[in-house]
Design brief:
Number of strands: 8
Helix content: 25-40%
Radius of gyration: 56 Å
């Protein structure tokens, strides 16, 4: 019996010794840290003053705030298609033929009291400006001076001028002391068969474009008569106006004013001489 009892105690002592080597009993500080990490800390209960301050902070303000200005529509930069069409219908139609390709301001000396943007070119002189019917009938220039190599032909009672390459032809009967002369203008010579005519001695029957206008446009042959000379080349200058145009025969130094559809004045001297 004694041997058996002593064996039990030996076993118990061995177990307690092993437990002591594996771990140590937790201290009081270790237990306190573990509890703080695992437990949510509850804040202390607020007193009456703290509760009142919190309620005042949460109340909405009764002061009305100024409202922002209502948003305005973003302006559209440009022209809507509908507006552009309406504007186009309201604009007057401009005939480009009246302006040519040189509608620019120039530096010519303006006429007394003139309000014209463009001025008559000084190459035409000033004699034509002394005739009220010419000055008032022409109005303001609509283009600058145009110079070209043309041709002319002298007739018994007038002249004809041709402008290549446009094909324009002017037939002019000069004015007299009795009043205005007359002119005819065609954009190109008419296509028609020309009669075989015989001119009086010392005179000529015009040919080509001059001949076509002379025979094909009513009134031209009777007004001009037969040609005195053959067709000749020379420098011509024109300036178009609101009511007509000025034409300068540079070799002869003569200026014609053609107004409206038929009235012709001149020749005026381009150097200021007596017409």
């Amino acid at each position: 019996m004694a041997i058996k009892f002593s064996g039990v105690w030996v076993l118990i002592v061995a177990i307690l010794a092993a437990c002591g080597q594996v771990s140590q009993l937790p201290t009081q500080e270790t237990i306190l840290i573990s509890k703080r990490l695992a437990t949510l800390e509850i804040s202390p209960t607020p007193n009456a003053a703290q509760v009142e301050a919190t309620q005042l902070a949460l109340q909405p303000s009764l002061t009305p705030q100024e409202s922002a200005a209502p948003p305005s529509a973003t302006p559209y930069i440009g022209v809507f298609l509908g507006e552009a069409e309406e504007i186009a219908r309201d604009d007057p139609i401009i005939n480009p033929a009246l302006f040519g390709n040189t509608l620019l301001d120039n530096t010519a000396t303006p006429l007394p009291g003139s309000t014209c943007v463009n001025q008559p070119d000084a190459i035409f002189g000033t004699t034509w400006q002394t005739v009220p019917e010419v000055r008032d009938g022409l109005g303001c220039p609509t283009e600058l001076l145009q110079t070209f190599a043309g041709s002319m032909q002298l007739f018994e009672r007038g002249l004809m001028y041709f402008r290549p390459p446009t094909g324009e032809i002017w037939a002019i009967v000069p004015s007299t002391s009795a009043g205005a002369g007359r002119f005819w203008y065609v954009e190109s010579a008419p296509e028609s068969e020309q009669e075989t005519l015989t001119a009086p001695e010392g005179l000529l029957v015009p040919t080509l474009g001059f001949g076509a206008v002379w025979q094909g446009v009513p009134g031209v042959r009777d007004a001009l008569g037969f040609a005195r000379l053959g067709e000749q080349g020379g420098e011509l200058m024109i300036q178009r106006f609101e009511g007509g145009m000025l034409l300068l025969d540079r070799p002869a130094g003569e200026v014609f004013a053609l107004i409206g559809r038929s009235e012709a004045y001149g020749p005026f001297s381009a150097d200021g001489g007596i017409p």
